[in-house]
Write a structure and sequence with these properties.
With 205 residues, the protein is mainly α. The chain has helices at residues 2-6, 10-18, 27-42, 47-75, 80-87, 112-128, 151-164, 170-188; strands spanning 133-135, 146-148. Helix 2 crosses helix 7, helix 4 (47-75) runs antiparallel to helix 6 (112-128) and helix 6 (112-128) runs parallel beside helix 8.
């Protein structure tokens, strides 16, 4: 972790920043919703399919965060910056050597970005199959859009961004991906039924 962050390439730093989803952004949950909206607007997708996509994405995000935070407070593992400052390099992540993204004030394991984004990607894959798309979520912040060949490629980048940012150890990312896949598959298996139209008759209403 220490050596990875100390030797980030320009591309790795860009990835860490793009997926930071902190202050002045829509946040991690808003980020996946923005991606979904962009994809729906750019393709000829029916209103019924769009409604199902929003519903399943919302469920996947909610269940991801519930399951992730359950694990976080069950294991209550220390963040990389705290461990490294205590045992390896006292100045790492300090004011003069700040990390690319601020470390959140809650337990490290598992990675919320990994769980949530992978669950979202699984649901999208199951609904629409793999498709290339470009994420313009942070255009207003001056960040270059990111292009992806598939939903899984997007989720993988979002997950590894937390290693580049110094926020998560690799184990939290890898287990988070597994956790997200399970959540996504369960959400995809939910049965959605058509709602019959409401009969319209004479008032009063």
């Amino acid at each position: 972790m220490h050596d990875v962050v100390e030797a980030l390439t320009a591309e790795q730093l860009t990835i860490a920043t793009f997926w930071g989803d902190g202050a002045r952004t829509v946040g991690a949950t808003g980020h996946v919703m923005m991606i979904l909206t962009q994809v729906l607007e750019s393709r000829d997708i029916s209103l019924v399919s769009a409604a199902e996509a929003y519903a399943k994405t919302s469920i996947a995000v909610a269940e991801s965060l519930i399951s992730c935070w359950d694990v976080k407070y069950r294991y209550n593992l220390i963040r990389p910056v705290s461990y490294i400052q205590q045992h390896i390099d006292a100045g790492w992540g300090g004011a003069e050597r700040a990390l690319p993204v601020g470390t959140p004030p809650y337990p490290e394991y598992t990675s919320g970005h990994s769980v949530q984004t992978t669950a979202f990607a699984q649901v999208m894959h199951d609904l629409f199959g793999d498709m290339p798309f470009t994420d313009h979520t942070h255009d207003d912040l001056g960040l270059e859009p990111r292009a992806f060949s598939s939903w899984s490629a997007m989720a993988a980048e979002a997950a590894i961004s937390r290693l580049y940012a110094g926020i998560h150890f690799r184990s939290a990312i890898e287990r988070g991906i597994e956790q997200g896949q399970r959540v996504g598959k369960r959400v995809s298996a939910l049965g959605f039924h058509s709602i019959p139209p409401v009969p319209v008759g004479p008032g009063p209403y």
